[in-house]
Amino acid sequence: MRKAVLLSVAIILSTMPEAGAEEKKLGVALDLTYTSKWMSKGVEAYGQKGGLFKTIDLDYYGTGFGTKITHRNATSSGYVNSERFDYRPYFKSLLFKDAPHQMNYNISVGYEHYTDTPRKLANTTWEWIFAFSWPNLFGGKVVPSYVAHYEYPDGSNQAFRSLTGWVHRFILGYDLDNPDLPAPLHLSSEVAYNDGLGGRVSDWSYATFGVSTKLNINENTAFVPGVYYQLSMDDSICKRDVTYAMLSMKYKFK
Q: Which is more confident, 179 or 201?
């Protein structure tokens, strides 16, 4: 955790606006998300229990740098050792602005601390996420994305190095307009390839299909409900197909 805190402080200091420069505000956004099941890279992380995630997102003066801090826990007993804090500095920007091949990207590294798990059981892990999307490639209607996750135990837990691996996610999103609805329906589909993460066999692991929407309550607050169906392909990831819901309340300070 000390490394993550020091990295966050260094980012804040390096992105502070200089004297005399155009002043930009520190962006702060809050997110409270309930999920009826937490499908973490296809795995039922809390079994049949739901999950509750609380996130603060700090945007450092519009520079593209930021930090997300998230607390994750199950909604009922039985998964105390799975409770954790995520500390995730990130950088997001884009290339080839307004071109058909414009590419948005978000690169981050997360320090995941399982607060109630003994250190000898690998209570800390690191996760890199490389996320790319191409919003103009198909005229803005269908948006393809690619997300790569690379996860490994903290340096003090060498005994768990065999659990290191990648997950590759290939995603398509589509906004369906309907004049009878206050906001478009966002249709999503993804297929994932697990490349050894968790000591599992490398194989196509799951496909997920979902529908969600964003309902603006006021200029600062939005409610985002969604329903998802996971088609499980690999029993080592998940032995059954799963339907679950996610409900998010988002608030952005202005």
A: 179
